[in-house]
């Protein structure tokens, strides 16, 4: 599917990810979670891992953002062209790629991955997962179709804010002309609305919609912290 980014304007994107060792870490389960999110109004879905991309692509009729996390430190979100090509081959309409300037395992650059992916899959779009304003501006110049604030607070460039990094969102929206998707620690509907009011193209929510253990933990802490003795 060739994605018209206008279809995501003013809409919610939902990230459906379960982590290694978790009970929901199963491609069929993630595809079902994705289907449920679409019923609720998600205009696009973001999934991690080749099997999850393949399984989710089978059942979705909204754009699919795919990524491949390899490792847990440094550049681990779709770190090389090999990973990006595999995401596209598995059915991702948009491939999310780490767009920070940190060294990649094979010494390649974001610009080289974008060029290599587009040479092979001209219709596939690139979402740049950025951690700073500089990343966003560079990624746009290097051919990213969507600018994401995904790595704000995770790449070492910015403090990890409680909730989304609204300051970065404001600066990126002002500086970039490509659609900006604000992603990362959007945990409440109020935060999602605040991000959109800044002028974001879309907001991407993961944990607060699709990670039951974390959501349960929030409620459990509130209940236990408020219980009368
Ligand atoms: C930093 C990193 O690796 N972020 C990942 C990117 O795909 C996911 O673990 C996040 O869940 C996703 O970005 C959505 O964010 P949140 O779950 O905070 O709504």
From TrEMBL:
UniProt-listed HAMAP family: ManNAc6P_epimer (MF_01235)
InterPro entries: Aldolase_TIM, NanE, RibuloseP-bd_barrel
GO molecular function (one): N-acylglucosamine-6-phosphate 2-epimerase activity
GO CC annotations on file: cytosol
EC number(s) on file: 5.1.3.9
Enzyme class: isomerase
Family per record: Belongs to the NanE family.
SUPFAM superfamilies: Ribulose-phoshate binding barrel
Reaction(s) this enzyme catalyzes, per UniProt: an N-acyl-D-glucosamine 6-phosphate = an N-acyl-D-mannosamine 6-phosphate
Protein name: Putative N-acetylmannosamine-6-phosphate 2-epimerase
Species of provenance: Tessaracoccus rhinocerotis
Keywords recorded for this protein, A-Z: Carbohydrate metabolism, Isomerase
Keyword Secreted: no
Organism domain of life: Bacteria
Pathway linked to the protein: Amino-sugar metabolism; N-acetylneuraminate degradation; D-fructose 6-phosphate from N-acetylneuraminate: step 3/5
Isomerase recorded as keyword: yes
Function: Converts N-acetylmannosamine-6-phosphate (ManNAc-6-P) to N-acetylglucosamine-6-phosphate (GlcNAc-6-P).
Gene Ontology biological-process entries: carbohydrate metabolic process; N-acetylmannosamine catabolic process; N-acetylneuraminate catabolic process
